[in-house]
Amino acid sequence: MIRTALIADIPALVSLEQRCFEIDRLSERSFRHLLKRGKASLFVYNEGESLLGYSLVLFHQNTSMARLYSLAISPESRGKGIAVKLMAASEMDALERGVVSMRLEVHVNNSTAIALYHKLGYRDFDIFPDYYEDHAAAIRMEKALASHLSPDISRVPLYTQTLDFTCGPASLMMALKAVNPELQLTRHLELRLWREATSIFMTSGHGGCSPFGLALSAFRRGLHVEVFTPCDAVMFIDSVRSEEKREVMRIVEEDFLQEIHQLGLPLHERQVSLDEVEQRFMAGDIPIVLISAYRLTGDKSPHWVVICGFDERFVYIHEPFVDTAEGKTETTCFGIPVARHEFERMRFYGSRRQYATLLISRGEK
């Protein structure tokens, strides 16, 4: 059976390690650290008193990516499907933790393991020379865990922002493309949308995009848009210390709001329920949501994302910011699964619990 490893399993794990690997072995100390304090999951497969295999996955803080660090099956138990079962358990556990992508490294000469990983859906994406103690190279592989939201299936495409402050335009572009597949997504459009929707100031840098500004940009492009956000607070103003800059932000927001009222855009001063968002998504709307980015990146800044799917356990989002410094790729930012209860917390930003959701659809309703 498969279960989570215990401290009592360490002697058997060390013994298995000795029998399975000649180099790069994990020590008793390493196993103990991983079980007590490591950001890891360690599953074992045992029959009776015999521990026949294990799978070890490491999790990276503030990323949606995990790493299969080691997979070991006792020599006499290979070929019985144990590795496949352990991998399935590790992948399911990673998905439940909100991980969207699993990576691994495998010895370039380990043809059996390479064939197994390919069979399980992992793809080669890089080679590390001189990676192991014997100076052999490692093949790097990656698998998208939310396979039902692959780019070929999701009706919402991914567009990644090209500047630190354009998550709003990038999110709107994904929605625009979802309702108008012929639209070309370019950096020119990204910057044009930012100029239209920016609040001008935010913290010490360029301004983020107001929900009112984004709504107007969507409306000007012939789309129907509904806004769910308070009208009595200037979004992002708490992040700006200068009173002069605050006054500029107030003027910008007042101008956006005045135009929204003149045009008669639907404006609801309440937080839309997640159940309603799901219903509207299933009916064809594309939700753009302001979140606190802390759970995604460790940054407490406000951040725009797009909802691209739902199931019983998760809300799936496209993350427009690809943090290459943290090893992220577009694969890791596509269809990130976020537990429903976690997403509910993410939908409120700052001490004043500000919120904003835009529901975008084609044509008029």
Give an account of the 3D structure.
It contains twelve helices and 16 strands. The protein is α+β, with helices and mostly antiparallel strands and 365 residues long. The protein folds into two domains: 144 residues, Gcn5-related N-acetyltransferase (GNAT) (Aminopeptidase, 3-Layer(aba) Sandwich); 196 residues, Alpha-Beta Complex (Cathepsin B, Chain A). A hairpin with a 3-residue loop joins strand 13 and strand 14. The strands form three sheets. The protein has a seven-stranded mixed sheet with strand order 1-2-3-4-5-7-6. A seven-stranded mixed sheet has the order 11-10-16-12-13-14-15, with helices on both faces. The protein has a two-stranded antiparallel ribbon with strand order 8-9.
Provide the descriptors you would attach to this structure in a database record:
Cathepsin B, Chain A, 365 residues, seven-stranded mixed sheet, 2 domains, 34% helix, 12 helices, single chain
> Major sheet: order of its strands?
1-2-3-4-5-7-6
Tell me the name of the CATH class of the largest domain. Answer: Alpha Beta
Order of helices and strands: EHHEEEHEHEEHHEEHEHEHEHEEHEHE
What oligomeric state do the depicted chains represent? single chain
Largest sheet composition: 7 strands, mixed
Global morphology? elongated
Roughly how much helix do the residues carry, as a percent range?
25-40%
